[in-house]
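Sequence in, structure out. Go.
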Amino acid sequence: MKRRQPAGRPSNHTKPAQQQTKNQASRMKRRAPARKRDARRTRLIIAIAILGVLILIAGGILIYIYDLLGNINTVPSGQQTIPSEFDQPTESLVNPLPEKKGIYNILLLGVDSRDQERIDERSDSMMILTIDQVHGKIKLTSLQRDMLVFIPGVKEPKKLNSANSLGGPLLVMRTVNEALRLNINKYMLVNMFGMEQIIDIAGGVWLDIENQQIEYINQTIHDANINYPDTAPSPLLTQAGRQLLNGRQAVGYARIRKLDSDYKRMERQRAVIQALLDTFLAADLGTKNKMMAAGLGLITTNMSSDEILKIGINMVPALSGEINQLQIPIEGYFKEYSGSEWVNLCDFNGMIPLLQEFIYGEVYPFDKVKV
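Output:
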């Protein structure tokens, strides 16, 4: 007869199973930290690998960018000076010139020369490029070339566009700074002759052409076809309306002078720049690369590669938007005068606060300029 096991007391044959379970749990507890360490080590290795790949990619991109920037004609600081006859002492000012963190101004000059080495010719177009990180905007201020200004070292006032032919970009910067009470110290000079090359690489730009403009555009195209026989001739325009223009046609549009006024001409120049920017943003990577390589080779500047790269990075967030535009002189602040030559007599003291508001978003006290 079998002896019954008292209730609540485990039988002897269950003890080995319980002990085995406890031993397994103990081993699992000892293995858990090891598995966690292995998992952390694996994640760390993966993170380091990914970081390494990113560093290699970033390094490759930087090398590529610096290689592109090498196409720019950089004038090192100190190697370019204002000719001594124009390098007069600057006037003493009571009020400091305006500055605002996150807002950068660069003077853009356009000359038209087949000789890439020549930068001391009359500037066909002049603009102030403003990179406004504060408001995430890019701004362009067009400077009318026929404005009568005082150029340092020149007794009588002269047209603004003559400053570059007299003393180069540094003299233009100083003249603009003194006339508008600014503190621009960086410039980019662009050879407009090569602008048509960039537009052709882009596949053309879309512009609205008016009937009365066709004659003047075609005359410019015709002259260029004759004057530059070593380049492919461009067809003439045959109709008005929105259409895709090649490089020579678009440059001809930007150069129209006798149809209306120099202010309309500046508007057309800005329209070409905006159209080219739109085309660039919509282009594929290969086309962007070709446009940048060709475009950078047309630039002469006193900015270093690092400065250009920094400015480029700062511009990226605002590239998708419209370019804010202003033209100087402003309507109501100048008089047209036709004597021995056509000039504009400007009220710079009246325009300076408006220009400050456009560039900086606020008005600063300033010393009056001589008129």
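Check: The CA atoms of residues 218 and 236 lie 5 Å apart. The first helix runs from residue 15 to 69.
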